[in-house]
Amino acid sequence: MTEGVSFAVAATDGAARTGALDLPRGTIRTPAFMPVGTAGTVKAMYMDQVRALGADVILGNTYHLMLRPGAERVARLGGLHRMANWPYPILTDSGGFQVMSLSALRKLDEEGVTFRSHLDGSAHRLTPERSLEIQGLLDSDIRMQLDECPPLPSPPAELERAMRLSLRWAERSKAAFGDTRGRALFGIVQGGDVPALRIESAEALAAIGFDGYAIGGLAVGEPQAVMLDIIATTVPHMPADRPRYLMGVGTPDDIIESVARGIDMFDCVMPTRAGRHGVAYTRFGKLNLKNARHADDPRPLDESADWPPARDYSRAYLHHLVKAGENLSGMLLTWNNLAYYQSLMAGIRAAIAAGRFEEYRAEVREGWARGDIPAL
Fold this sequence. Notes:
By secondary structure, the chain is α/β, with parallel strands linked by helices. The chain is about 40% helix and about 20% strand. It has helices at about 45-50, 60-65, 70-75, 80-85, 95-100, 130-140, 155-175, 195-210, 225-235, 250-260, 270-275, 310, 315-325, 325-355, 355-370, and strands at about 5-15, 15-25, 25-30, 30-35, 60, 90, 105-110, 115, 125, 140-145, 185-190, 210-215, 245, 265-270, 280, 285-290. The chain has an eight-stranded parallel β-sheet with strand order 4-14-13-12-11-10-6-5. The chain has a three-stranded antiparallel β-sheet with strand order 1-2-3. The protein has a three-stranded antiparallel β-sheet with strand order 7-8-9. β7 and β8 (about 115) form a beta hairpin.
């Protein structure tokens, strides 16, 4: 691995594993959920709150930060950690997923992609080298190769073309990263829902050599069963001595099932986005606070929870805040959701270490299946 970066698996239970990714700015305990800080902020949260919930790392978005406030400006101001007041590890994506989603505003070629900003229509160019340059200006701790992420479903020939282009870009990304010390570079497995392409991509990336390996191009509309099958097919071909990152995933159910198949790292906007739209994640499953049944309910979301928004506010009050459009509703429910996600990850890590992951998985799933207790 890159000098100053190390990863070790401390315990396994079936395919599930727990360990630690050590970086100069801190240790990431795995399995880990990374709150998404798209523009240098985890929406509706203070950074000290995010840290207090147990997050070891957050994610920043290269596409959004290169457009606003601009990577060079961030660098002049001391880097993303200083700007955001987050002195711990930050992972930046490559910007590729966002650019590839701008189908009407971008043009792809062998060298990279030309696109127009969704903010003001200005033209920009992103190549593997420029993506790594931007991530270097942001001074992120974990950096991602530029890749092409085709939608699903797509024809197998299109998935193969994108996978091979991503491999060529992986080689260029590795060269652009060079001998950067104390920072990690991850490669990204592509291949859509074609198992043979995923295996070929994973093995080719391993031959190039990265500090970690991500699975990209999933959770883009395919059924969960397809996603889990691709994970189970791909993981055995990813180096066991490197962290495995499933990009953009997902629900608590997606996470615990992916851990069972050997995944170490996750990110998703779901807990923060859901919180801003009146949805709470709890050990009883999802609760939609917009529903009228909560209007007269004096109970908290979960009286046994360790975090204040679940324990100290009534469902009736949260329902009122959501219906009134008060900013506090998004703040409290985002806080609750991120707390629940981090509690789930802590429980997963402890269960794997104790050799009882399957029991924990069954307990969690039973709670979701049982659902919320009836109103009083």
